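Same chain as my last thread, 134 residues:
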Amino acid sequence: MIVNKNYKPLPVELEIIGKKIVDAAYSVHKNLGPGLLEKVYEICFCHELEKRGLKYQRQINIPVVYDGITFDEGLRLDVLVENQIICELKAIETINPVWEAQILSHLKLTKNRLGYLINFNVSNIGKGIRRFIK
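reply #2:
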């Protein structure tokens, strides 16, 4: 096993929020199952986050700073939980590797450390949740 010397464990607070996020995704999937539109899952997922006492923002624009210029258009993340954790939601048959790269880019640009890629269009939601740490 290769261990990154610069790796810092996530703060306990982030781990607790992360568990609530996963629990919220399980709840939504248990109640709705696969086969709906992403927007439906997003609304219900945010409702579940709220029930767990978590603050969230939906459809957040991410500014990009390039060559000293800030560009406000182009990138958007689905849900930002407690201003710290990115959740990208999908309702598709297979995950495209570009979405994994996308969430890593979002983590880098926002300087956040934890993100989830959640695909609700699966028979077992456990296989639809991917966790990313930067």
